[in-house]
Amino acid sequence: METIILKSFTYNGSGGNGAGLVILDSDMSEEQMQKIAANVGLSETAFLKRLDEENFDVRFFTPVCEVELCGHATIAAFYYVGEKIINIINNNKQNLKLYQNTKAGKLAININYKNEKVESVLMEQASPKFYGYIEENQMITLAESLGIDASCVKLADYDIKPAIVSTGLKDILIPVMDRQTLNKIEPQFDLISKVSKSNDVGGYHVYTIDKGQIYARNFAPLVGINEECATGTSNGALGALLFKENIRNGYFDVLQGEAMNELSQICVYVDDNGVKVGGKAEIV
Prior knowledge:
Shape: globular
Distance between the termini: 18 Å
């Protein structure tokens, strides 16, 4: 067994979201994995076991529970695979397509090389699932949990409501009117946990569009993550929603973590065939 710490979704060599990675050479119990994830103490730790040249089993644990899928831990895990494991047989550093078996299904991973180094990792998301929009009677509570006025829960240039969407993990996707509002949010974590539990979601993904650039923040105290600076699956769900609402099509990127001074970049590609999320990573 080997444990590695990485950062995913780095932006211009900084930022990024820390993830643990445990390389398994034998089976490990769920209780053991949970204990290790708690000791690592990062928002998620991936437990990876290689099955053959293309296929890997992967499980994801926060410090307090298992989750079906985690974007940034996937990017971290397969960056390491591309750099330290597959490189032995990939002497020409050709781009690779691998697969991870997760509790969200079997998902494709693309590892892209440049100058014999992993340039980026792109992960297929589970098929988007839409669970509806937040009812009007919850809007005040939603705004209260973020420490903002209910009139700010909207985009300036698009008519879109808070919605529950999943491409592997269910989140409430909450628009706010501008970047200033996004950065001045004062999350009420107990209330966010209560609202998340009542809606059967992992947490909130709050976003805005400022001069064409998408910015986001993510809060998931219910699963032990107050805020993190980069979230892959949540931005995958956001891509699915923006595609459904005819706001984005094809490639775009999301900048997350500005309020934490850990600005990170998440790349999203969405079309009729589904959603992919990716970015850069580095070993800490």
